[in-house]
Amino acid sequence: MIIFPAVDIQNGKAVRLKQGRAHESTVFSPDPVAAAVAWRDKGARWLHVVDLDGAFDGLPKSRDIVRDICRELDIPVTMVTDTYQFPMGQAMLTIYPPVGAGDLNEQGLTFLCSAGDFDALITGDMAGNTEKKLVERFDLPDIEVLVVGHHGSRYSSTDAFLQQVRPETAIISVGDNSYGHPTQEAMDRLSRNGAAVYRTDRQGNVLVTVNGGT
Question: Which pTM was predicted?
């Protein structure tokens, strides 16, 4: 099992949200760079850094802090323009480059984590038009787990996309929000295409176990 310590950035501080709710946060460090250094000094080989302000606003807000973390920890920054694969223990992480244009939601990366016959796909916040481009450009496998696009937005997880990747399980990462996520339209499409749906706002943290490991 690989553990990714996290530095979630909100209002310039390292925080942890309660079930993804922006207004319910606990400050773990006033300095995200110092928090990242502390994890490094404790032996962490991986670090998950999230710009929460950018995630909620739809535009990057903490780019300078992320850049400072990379500089302080001597982390090389790679612009993803082609498919990259990274071994992770007995699993393989495949990173696909952006395939959309315009809105930043359409310019995100796609992640496929594979372990034996198990595949999990994360498409970020892309909408249906970009999902279409993704499956047209890359030969994606039938997947066991889909982290549902854009928190269950009605514009994501189209029937055409779901019929292409055929997820058995769909996990919606969502908390209290003013957007109506997850929408009933998205929920209906997931169910109609045979996916068992789990929601973090109802089930809490979702742990996926694969072949006896996690």
Answer: 0.76
